[in-house]
Design goal:
The complex is a heterotrimer of chains A (about 290), B (about 280) and C (about 450). Chain A is mainly α and about 290 residues long. Chain A has helices at about 10-35, 55-60, 60-95, 100-105, 115-125, 130-140, 155-165, 170-180, 185-190, 195-225, 230-235, 245-255, 260-290, and strands spanning about 40, 50. Chain A has 13 helices and two strands; from the N terminus they run H-E-E-H-H-H-H-H-H-H-H-H-H-H-H. In chain A, helix 10 packs antiparallel against helix 13 (about 260-290). Chain B has two domains: about 1-35; about 60-270, MetI-like (MetI-like fold, Orthogonal Bundle), CATH 1.10.3720. Classes of the chains: A mainly alpha (about 290), B mainly alpha (about 280), C alpha+beta (about 450).
């Protein structure tokens, strides 16, 4: 039901945005490709052309693949935790009749907290010696943990932090989906004597599958590029326990002045994001949009 | 029958109990940072941590007297307002065009804008650094405003596209029959009707810009110092952990955003899903 | 219908505008309030020693320079003296202080972009390799040798300790001057030693034994140590004390030689008696662990000492003792550290900037700073009775003994010097892997040596 505009009018509307993106996104993107073909060995002023050597070096390095491993764990972990818990809480919230407004107002709060503050707060709470969490655990007789400072526990800890921040997002997306759902199948199921669990399993889930897919995709994109919390809490440590691609790219570029590494990693991440989003977004816009 | 009602009540209570526990877990970090911000210095470094203590306002007083903190707040405010306004200025007409005007390549434009929301800033941050240096935009409000506008523009376009799509077209058609051009119809009729959408998108941009870290960390250094960067470095490396001051400034930075988030609850989800969920 | 809607929204917008306006007002008021602290001009006396310099201190009268300091006790101490400089030279100083992390990430980024506007800045010497490679810092030998700008007899460059002189040309050219002298010493809780009957350790073996006994007693953790940010700094002293090295002047990697690995073994053993979570410990945390009484000793930077005796910050005032750095198989080799100041290569005011650098590192100023608790890099001040009187005797004694043999970080060869920060960061991570028991010390260092070889190839 779109109208036809006068010839050329559309440019007035669309062009400013496109020109802006051309300057701040497309041009840097290609300039970045050009820079990534150079070496900074002689300093940032004396770049030397090395062709695809940076790509070969990075993509065959142990460090890069370790970063890939950590990125996958981090992404899968946070997406699973946020969508899983989000779904559970949304279903529960949907079945509550009173005080919903209050729960909604409280549950959404983490989305407003700046990730940097989130990271620092949890760092404080996770401190193995002076943190509140170990203290509470020991008060009730549970084992304590090294949390983000332990090689084996650091990844789980940052996943918990990232998840705390982002659970409200899938939660409310799914909740919105639940609210839009037709009531008839449930009424019929109740009459047939289906249990609550059966209703969720056989009616709710299939109905909100597209919404669930949307939440998962968007969380994937968010987790894949997550930086703030990791940078603030562990900077990739201890050792390289939480060293993800984006942290590597950042540290190499801005701490070690070897920006070719950062560029190569960045380009690789861009390609992955593009592939994933083209597949998923196309699928989803068809499902959700209709 | 009575048993049925009793059972129903019990499950209802159980649901609320579960919900209250969930809310407490969710709120705990926010409550803890609030508690830390109200502690005196010796309470903040105590081992084990003190749950009960005499609250004092010293931390807030110190932080509010720090020039750096006030500068960080004003820098954040300038950048967030600037980038929100620029984002709305550029993105609203584009969103309108995508919602209303049939033109070739509109799907491509929409998808391209989605991409900008998906890539990490790291993809362009290094070349952007060099470009900004050439144009004198490093460490300036303008530079960071441009970078934050990049983050927000896709959001504005997609959100506004959704809002314009919700407005009945009849109004603009009437206006156009009266002889208005598309531009006038947009300006006079569509835009005022979509004012709540503009406000929601604007608050959104503000929130993202206020909390943004990576661009702020690398594109600015001294003259401009937004609050996330301030808090990530200000209280570190100074011979002792300053958890009280850290928490107090954290509280002050976060509080307005908490209010925003509750205020725009419904739009928040719509925005985060780029208008896919209403 | 639509019209009323628009009207309503108009009202809403007005309310919102009001709120925004209100927030803005509060902020502006806050800013105005915050800026009220600007000090008014005070008459200052210039110490008479400056008349002894045969240069014209007032040759740049009326100019102004921008100076950037990182937060550090030195900065706290010299800042009140800056009016003296302004009175002496007639040059106005615009001072900015930035947190440590800003100095390490954002300042280099600004230098790389050419947007750093400060004329003089506080700097770490081991950045000199990169700074000089990129040409970010100005060469200073010309100023040092210009008789109109520097009186060599009065300034007395050779008064700096040899180690301090060495860091002035750690990079490709001479670009910085030392402002402090620090070294790792042993800091301990006298009361806990006494209760447990522990003799002050003189060797690493005795230190380990003391740490074990304290931990086992349950009175406190036996030691606290940096396991996180900059853990390499105190670690270098341990390496040298165990006969090891990082990298030699020909860029030959020595980090996995027996001496270096032995140092890692000692560190790992010490870490067993440290509070849980030391892989996140920087000097903030080790210091806090002492100040709240949870740990009983550390071997780390001497600059922390005065803070432990500050009743506003510390719960252990009066219970702190200091001793020389412990002796290892390779002797007593503590890690020295000299903070420095350098000139921005892009400065438009080299003359005034140089006068400031010279003033800040001159004998009279360094003495005034030293008396307030900052150890100076000039040998002459250490012999000054006024200086010795300002510290507790055990601390001065500990420092004197330690400084005799303390060393600063190795400049390495051409490549290692330039990639130093990268080497340090990978070292931090390797040490954490060893502390966490993920790798044996030998494994961790062997792996690190391969990583280093890639970096400095």
């Amino acid at each position: 039901m779109k109208m036809k505009a006068e010839k050329g009018t559309v440019f007035i509307f669309v062009l400013p945005t496109l020109i802006f993106l051309l300057l701040i996104f497309v041009y840097p993107l290609f300039f970045g490709v050009y820079l990534s073909l150079h070496s900074t060995r002689e300093g940032l002023r004396l770049l030397s052309f090395v062709g695809l050597r940076n790509y070969a070096t990075v993509l065959t390095s142990e460090l890069f693949w370790w970063g890939v491993r950590n990125t996958v764990i981090y992404t899968v972990g946070t997406v699973g935790l946020t969508v899983g818990l989000g779904l559970a809480i949304a279903v529960l919230l949907n079945r509550i009749k009173s005080a919903v407004w209050l729960y909604r107002a409280l549950l959404i709060l983490p989305l407003g907290v700046s990730p940097v503050v989130t990271g620092m707060t949890w760092q404080m709470m996770f401190d193995p010696l002076s943190g509140i969490i170990n203290h509470l655990l020991s008060l009730v007789g549970l084992p304590t943990s090294l949390w983000h400072t332990g090689f084996r526990t650091a990844m789980a800890s940052v996943i918990i932090i990232e998840s705390w921040q982002w659970i409200p997002f899938p939660l409310f997306v799914i909740y919105a989906g639940l609210q839009m759902m037709p009531q008839e199948p449930f009424e019929a199921a109740t009459i047939d004597g289906a249990t609550a669990f059966q209703q969720i399993r056989y009616i709710t889930l299939p109905l909100i599958a597209p919404i669930l897919g949307l939440a998962t995709t968007l969380r994937f994109i968010g987790a894949f590029r997550s930086f703030d919390i990791l940078y603030v809490v562990t900077k990739g440590g201890p050792g390289r326990a939480t060293d993800t691609l984006i942290l590597q790219a950042f540290m190499e570029s801005f701490s070690y002045y070897r920006f070719e590494y950062g560029l190569v990693v960045g380009k690789t991440m861009l390609v992955v994001t593009l592939i994933v989003s083209i597949i998923l977004v196309n699928k989803l816009t068809r499902q959700v949009g209709s | 029958m009575n048993r049925y009602i009793a059972q129903k009540q019990i499950t209802e209570i159980a649901k609320h109990a579960a919900m209250i526990v969930i809310c407490l877990v969710t709120l705990f970090p926010i409550l803890w940072i609030l508690a830390q911000s109200l502690k005196g210095y010796f309470d903040t470094i105590a081992v084990p941590p003190r749950i009960f203590f005499t609250p004092v306002l010293d931390n807030f007083r110190h932080v509010l007297q720090r020039r750096g903190f006030l500068q960080a707040l004003s820098d954040s405010l300038i950048v967030a307002l600037g980038s929100s306004m620029l984002g709305l200025f550029l993105g609203t007409p584009c969103g309108y065009a995508l919602a209303r005007i049939r033109f070739r390549g509109s799907d491509t434009v929409g998808f391209f804008l989605l991409i900008t929301r998906m890539v990490s800033p790291i993809v362009i941050i290094i070349p952007l650094n060099r470009l900004f240096a050439v144009f004198g935009l490093m460490d300036s409000h303008t530079g960071l405003i441009l970078a934050h506008t990049f983050i927000n523009i896709g959001l504005v376009v997609w959100m506004m596209r959704g809002y314009f799509g919700d407005i009945p077209e009849s109004l603009e058609e009437a206006a156009r029959i009266d002889g208005c051009s598309t531009v006038t119809a947009f300006w006079r009729v569509a835009l005022p009707t979509a004012a709540p959408g503009l406000a929601a998108s604007g608050i959104f941009c503000f929130l993202f810009s206020w909390n943004e870290f990576m661009f702020a960390l690398t594109l600015t250094s001294r003259a401009v110092h937004t609050s996330p960067v301030f808090i990530s470095s200000e209280f570190i490396g100074y011979l002792a952990v300053e958890w009280g001051l850290l928490s107090a400034s954290g509280m002050l930075i976060v509080l307005p955003m908490l209010i925003f988030v509750v205020a725009i609850q419904k739009n928040l989800i719509r925005g985060l899903t780029m208008g896919a969920v209403k | 219908m639509v019209k009323t809607n628009i009207l309503k929204k108009g009202c809403v917008m007005k309310r919102k505008q009001l709120i925004v306006a209100g927030v803005l007002l509060v902020l502006i008021a806050g800013l105005a309030f915050g800026r009220g602290e600007r000090d008014t001009a005070v008459e200052v006396d210039v110490p008479p020693e400056f008349a002894g310099a045969n240069i014209d201190w007032r040759q740049f009268e009326g100019e102004s320079i921008d100076v950037m300091f990182g937060r550090h006790p030195w900065e706290e101490t010299i800042t009140p003296l800056i009016p003296q400089f302004e009175a002496l030279t007639g040059i106005r100083v615009n001072l900015r202080r930035v947190p440590h992390d800003v100095m390490m990430v954002e300042v280099p980024a600004a230098m790389a972009a050419g947007t750093l506007t400060d004329d003089v800045m506080m700097a770490r010497y081991y950045d000199a390799g990169r700074h000089t490679l990129e040409g970010w810092t100005a060469e200073i030998s010309g100023f040092l040798n210009d008789p109109s700008l520097t009186d060599p007899n009065w300034y007395n460059f050779n008064d700096f300790f040899p180690g301090a002189r060495q860091i002035t040309d750690w990079g490709a050219y001479q670009d910085r001057l030392p402002i402090t002298a620090e070294a790792s010493v042993l800091i301990y809780r006298k009361d806990i030693y006494q209760e447990l009957g522990i003799q002050v350790p003189t060797t690493f073996d005795e230190l380990l034994d003391a740490a074990r006994r304290i931990s086992e007693s349950g009175k406190a953790f036996g030691i606290t140590a940096r396991g996180g940010p900059a853990n390499w700094m105190p670690f270098y002293g341990m390496v040298r004390s165990h006969g090891g090295e990082w990298v030699d002047e020909n860029d030959v990697i020595k980090i996995n030689t027996p001496g270096s690995v032995a140092a890692v073994e000692t560190l790992v053993e010490l870490a067993r008696y440290a509070p849980p979570g030391i892989t996140a410990y920087g000097w903030d945390q080790i210091n806090t662990a002492m100040m709240n009484g949870s740990a009983a000793q550390f071997i780390d930077a001497s600059v922390i000492y005065p803070r432990l005796q500050d009743p506003e910050r510390s719960t252990v005032v009066g219970k702190i003792g200091a001793a020389p750095y412990p002796i290892g198989p390779g002797g007593r080799v503590s890690n020295a550290h000299f903070w420095s100041i350098a000139m921005n290569a892009r400065t438009q005011k080299p003359g005034p900037s140089w006068l400031f650098m010279q003033w800040a590192t001159s004998p009279p100023v360094q003495k005034q700073v030293a008396i307030k608790g900052i150890l100076p890099p000039r040998a002459s001040i250490w012999d000054d009775p006024e200086f010795a009187a300002a510290y507790s005797p055990d601390f001065i004694d500990a420092m004197n003994v330690t400084m005799e043999t303390a060393v600063s970080l190795p400049p390495g060869g051409e490549r290692a010097g330039v990639e130093f920060i990268s080497l340090l960061d990978t070292l931090t991570r390797a040490l954490q892997e060893a502390i966490e028991g993920e790798k044996t010390p030998q494994q961790a260092m062997d792996d690190l040596a391969r990583v280093w070889a890639d970096i400095i190839r």
